[in-house]
Predict the 3D structure of the following.
Amino acid sequence: MPRRFDHIDLRVRNLEEVRAFYDTFLPALGFAHDAQIEGWIQYDAIGEDGTLRDFFGVTESPGHVANENRIAFWADTDAEVDRLAAVAVSVGARNVEGPGFEVPGYYAVFFEDASGNRFEICHRTN
C-alpha cells in the first residue's frame, strides 16, 4: 500500500511550553529519532531498512489559535491506547476524555496539548 502522508508540521504558541510533552509523547508513538532542528521539535520514524519513513514536527507560531481539527493515531490494541493515554497524561495532556469505547469496536482517548491542539489515539476492531 502506498504511503498516505509524509509528515505533520504542527504549530504551537510557545515551543518551550510544549517541549516536555512532545519529547516524551512522540517517541512513545514510534517517532523515535530526534532530528534536532533549530526552532523545531521534530521526531522521525525510521524504517527497518534505516530510511526515514515519516516525521512529526512542531514549531512556534506565537499567534497560533487552536481549532477543531484533530490528529488521530492508530493503536494496535486497546492496551496500546491505554499505554499511550497514560504517557500523554503523564506529560501534561489537557481535556482528556477516555480511554473508553466511543461505540462498540472503537476504543479511544481524546486530549489536547498545552496550545489546544487536539489529538486522539484509537483502536478499531470493526
Q: What stands out?
A: The chain has one domain: 7-124. The longest strand covers residues 94-103.
